[in-house]
Amino acid sequence: xxxxxxxxxxxxxxxxxxxxxxxxxxxxxxxxxxxxxxxxxxxxxxxxxxxxxxxxxxxxxxxxxxxxxxxxxxxxxxxxxxxxxxxxxxxxxxxxxxxxxxxxxxxxxxxxxxxxxxxxxxxxxxxxxxxxxxxxxxxxxxxxxxxxxxxxxxxxxxxxxxxxxxxxxxxxxxxxxxxxxxxxxxxxxxxxxxxxxxxxxxxxxxxxxxxxxxxxxxxxxxxxxxxxxxxxxxxxxxxxxxxxxxxxxxxxxxxxxxxxxxxxxxxxxxxxxxxxxxxxxxxxxxxxxxxxxxxxxxxxxxxxxxxxxxxxxxxxxxxxxxxxxxxxxxxxxxxxxxxxxxxxxxxxxxxxxxxxxxxxxxxxxxxxxxxxxxxxxxxxxxxxxx
Length: 386
Known about the structure:
Number of domains: 2
Helix content: 40-55%
Low-confidence stretches: 1-14
Largest sheet: 10 strands, mixed
Shape: globular
Radius of gyration: 21 Å
Structural class: alpha/beta
Number of helices: 15
Oligomer: single chain
Mean pLDDT: 89
CATH topology of the largest domain: Spore Coat Polysaccharide Biosynthesis Protein SpsA, Chain A
């Protein structure tokens, strides 16, 4: 059982209130930056659990130095690589905090996130988790967008299971692990992450949690998510065979759960939305090299879809303008979301980015600098040992 957290003053928590789990596989060159973003919170009662998932690179020096650099850091060393879901479960099993966050080794927390989410969960004891917004950046730090694209609310709010069932029919994909704080005992009671679901494991688990317990949404930028085409989630969606396999597993998991029992119509809607996301990913990452036939297959398109997408490919190509036309076509045909809803949320996201662009840029620079400083400390400790 997690230790009961005791408040020390108005915001500090002790002894261990929050566990931050950072799974890592051959990411030792950027790991100090993720750790530094947690340390920047300057909140007592936080432990950082790095799970080394059987890395093949020579990273022991970095891991040992990170442990030595701050007493809140501990490393769990796995003898062989088992994949991200298994590494997340290893960290979950080791977590001593009342609440737990799962942070990618290449992602960053915005200072203040842990306090805000812990306060939200304490104010709403029925909630399984609390989450906020994230900024998506490329590997060269270009800001690409905001997630969730369709937020569950326009203000801070606890959404009960009944509210979740209603709102998810209009908006979806609300929860990103980087900007989410879970109630540890609830996520453990649900068995943690299903390794069979691969990169879908967190999305499916979060849906089970919020359909069963509800959650708190706290608007505002809480984290920075770095994306690349070679990540687990991107590679799973871009591989058609793997996508179909995982989608079948996900559908069965949802259908046999509280989701299927209370909102059976959502299971089919989830598949439509995920297929649209897979089409978008292909257009985003492959551009002109995207295959019209592959897009039709992933979207489960019919003969009319094939003719329209094929015509766009032959006349304009599937780069930016052509890709926008393909997405517009499938939005009208498949209606994963109401087009008006998408337009309203797109405007909301532009305003959110415009409002926070300077602050996010500044925080990214500060966190990069903190990561660099920690890397130097790690290198110095490693050099002293050897």
